Structures are given as structure tokens and as C-alpha cells.
Amino acid sequence: MKTWKETLRNVVPLEYIVFVDVPMKESKSGDVINLAPEVLDLLAATAVLQNKIPLRGKEVLFLRKVLGLSLEKFANKLDLSSSTVFHWEKAETTRISLVSELAVRVFVAEQLNIPISYKFSDLVGDKICELKVKAV
Amino acid sequence: MHNSEVVRDLIANGFYLLTKHARERMAERNITHMDIRQCARHGIIDLKDDRYVIVGRDIDAELLKIICVYDDDVLIITVY
């Protein structure tokens, strides 16, 4: 069976995440990503948190879904109303407030065991650039 | 256990692989690994022409359809 490594774009909902060296294998049904299915989701979540990517609606939605939480459960955990989170997510490209962002970052990092360390001032600024994430 | 239920259990517990095509469709529709597991856990599974079709709901109760094959592993070919 043929195997190889490939660079993959647009395999998570955040278009700026590029996975490099992704192990692949061929099959009768098409090219297969030869990794446990949660790996790319977790790597992307880690990249967003550790690279201090501003959290907009689309990042909040992605992180919530990586946790596997419904909108209601996610909002409850953060002591927010469901409608607040709904409006964040609906505004896909609008950054949420820095205070909310910090709460979401700390909560998601804790749930996924992702080590983070930053100061409030680290989060000021709107830089979103292509992120290369090594798959293995 | 019938193969359909084996497939359901494997996906619901995260033991499956994805084609590149399936991953691209997931990205387009904001679907994560956890949505796939949720859909498999409670969805209706059917065998059609050697392919398993699971129709269920994702984490946000949106309708989701998973198409997969089962040889040595469960391989998800596409989702929509």
C-alpha cells in the first residue's frame, strides 16, 4: 500500500491553518489521512490558543465543537447566556471582547490540557497569518 | 453483533479514519470529530451497496449524513 506525507489546507474550518507532513495512505475510496480523527482538530485548537490568534466567531465555534459541547453547555460553563455565545458565533469575523476572549482561552486550554501562558497585553492586536502546523 | 452496530460503536468511540475529501467537507461545514461521534451515537445506520450511511444530528442538532466503508477499519468517505 502506498504511503506518503502531504501538506493539507482547508481540512479544518480555519483557513489559515496549514498542516505539514500529514501521513497519508491510498485506498480504493480515495486518499486517506492516516491519523486518529481527533488529531487535526486538536492540533488546530492548540495552534489557535498558543499562537494567540484573535478569537472571532469562527474560532469560538470551532473550539466549542472541538470540546464537543452544545452551545447551551458551553455558555453554562462560562456563566454566559446561550444568546451571547450564539451572537459571537454568528459574527464569524468579528473579534469577541478581550475579557471574554481570555475566559474562553483559559477554559478551552484547561479542558484540552493545552499549556498556555500569556499576559493580557499579549492578546491586543489583530494578527491572523498562515500557521504551519506539523502533523506528527 | 451485526456489522452495522460494530460500525456505529467504532465511530462513536473515535475509532475511524477519514479521507482527505471527508475532511475537506467537514471543514466547509464546521464539522469536527466530536460531531461525527455524536451523529454515530444516536443516528440511524443503514447499509447500501457496501457503504454504511448514518443519518443523525451533530452537537448543535443539525442534520448530518456520514458515508463510510468497513474493511479492516472504518473509513469515512464523505459527510454532508
Concise synopsis of the structure shown:
The complex is a heterodimer of chains A (136) and B (80). With 136 residues, chain A is of the alpha+beta class. Chain A is built from 5 helices and 4 strands, in the order E-E-E-H-H-H-H-H-E.
Textual characterization of the structure:
The complex is a heterodimer of chains A (136) and B (80). By secondary structure, chain A is of the alpha+beta class. Chain A is built from 5 helices and 4 strands, in the order βββαααααβ. The model of chain A has no long low-confidence stretch (mean pLDDT 93). Chain B has 80 residues and is α+β, with helices and mostly antiparallel strands. The radius of gyration of chain B is 11 Å and the shape is globular. The A-B interface holds A 6, 8, 10-13, 24, 27, 29-38, 40-41, 58, 61-62, 65-71 and B 14, 16-21, 23-24, 26-28, 30-38, 59-61, 69, 75-77.
